[in-house]
């Protein structure tokens, strides 16, 4: 079997399974099984696939057909300039969450940033990578998620809400999915990603409300949320403003705790 043969068969299988990006998924899985860059599949479509790689690829394609996310299959996900290990104990880092990093990058040298609900640690680790002058800390309420963050090299602490300390900015991508939305989510999310990291009460704002309510007055916060939650999140804060993500959707609201 050649790379071109494998790509054609994989794209057909993933398309039939309803995957949104069948060619990209197939290229990532094939390239990883062969230990080459994705570009190699285009430059050398006749690249042979040896039996061990073929068996591994077959297993991984079956997992993707069952709608398991590619990031969990490969065990890693790129986020800005870094790559983090991920599995079903943590959410897969998403492009829209990069906005939290962008907000923190505007801070002056030596500013103290804390991330609540760090998960894999992607946001905190990206900040440390791009702004080593910042004092970055992180925490998560899930011991399982902390294990992943620690494996990624982040010395995050266990805790629900904001830990004691003085911070110039608190960033958080907390659960914000409504209870009634869960059954309509894509299989990749509903069947594989941790529900506790996604769902947060009837209006999706229980976790955000708890963080804001427990933060000392005047604490500066940057909170990720769904586009239709911007007004409600803004109402929880003083002097709030909402920033759009790369798709133009209202995604992160900044403000201070009342």
Secondary structure blueprint with pairings:
Elements: H1 3-16, H2 22-34, H3 39-43, H4 51-65, H5 70-74, E1 76-79, E2 82-85, H6 98-105, E3 112-116, H7 122-130, E4 135-140, H8 143-151, E5 157-158, E6 169-172, H9 187-190, H10 206-214, E7 220-224, H11 230-236, E8 238-244, E9 250-256
Task: Outline the biggest β-sheet.
Answer: 7 strands, mixed
Helices and strands, in order, run as HHHHHEEHEHEHEEHHEHEE
Residues in β-strands, percent? 15-25%
Number of helices: 11
Mean pLDDT: 97
Whole-angstrom Rg: 20 Å
Describe the protein's architecture and organization.
A hairpin with a 2-residue loop joins strand 1 and strand 2 (82-85). Helix 2 (22-34) runs antiparallel to helix 4 (51-65). The strands form 2 sheets. Strands 5-4-3-6-7-9-8 form a 7-stranded mixed beta sheet, sandwiched between helices. A two-stranded antiparallel sheet has the order 1-2. The chain has helices at residues 3-16, 22-34, 39-43, 51-65, 70-74, 98-105, 122-130, 143-151, 187-190, 206-214, 230-236, and strands at 76-79, 82-85, 112-116, 135-140, 157-158, 169-172, 220-224, 238-244, 250-256. By secondary structure, the protein is of the alpha/beta class.
Considering the chains and any ligands shown, give keywords for the structure.
single chain; 258 residues; alpha/beta; seven-stranded mixed sheet; two-stranded antiparallel sheet
Short synopsis of the structure:
The chain has 258 residues and is an alpha/beta fold.
């Amino acid at each position: 079997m050649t790379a071109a043969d494998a790509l054609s068969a994989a794209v057909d299988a993933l398309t039939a399974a309803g995957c949104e990006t069948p060619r990209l998924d197939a290229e990532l899985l094939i390239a990883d099984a062969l230990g080459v860059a994705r570009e190699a599949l285009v430059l050398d479509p006749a690249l042979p696939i040896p039996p061990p790689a073929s068996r591994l690829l077959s297993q991984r394609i079956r997992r993707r057909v069952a709608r398991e996310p590619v990031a969990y299959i490969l065990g890693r996900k790129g986020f800005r300039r870094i790559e983090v290990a991920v599995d079903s104990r943590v959410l897969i880092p998403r492009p829209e969450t990069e906005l939290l990093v962008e907000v923190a990058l505007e801070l002056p040298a030596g500013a103290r940033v804390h991330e609540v609900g760090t998960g894999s640690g992607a946001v905190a680790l990206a900040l440390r990578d791009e702004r080593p002058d910042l004092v970055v800390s992180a925490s998560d309420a899930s011991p399982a998620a902390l294990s992943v963050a620690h494996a990624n090299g982040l010395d995050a602490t266990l805790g629900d809400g904001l830990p004691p300390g003085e911070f110039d900015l608190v960033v958080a991508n907390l659960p914000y999915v409504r209870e009634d939305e869960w059954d309509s989510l894509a299989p990749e999310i509903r069947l594989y990603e941790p529900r506790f990291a996604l769902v947060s009460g009837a209006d999706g704002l229980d976790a955000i409300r708890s963080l804001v309510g427990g933060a000392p007055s005047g604490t500066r916060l940057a909170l990720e949320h769904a586009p239709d939650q911007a007004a409600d999140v803004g109402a929880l804060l003083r002097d709030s403003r909402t920033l759009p993500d790369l798709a133009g959707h209202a995604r992160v609201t900044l403000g201070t705790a009342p």
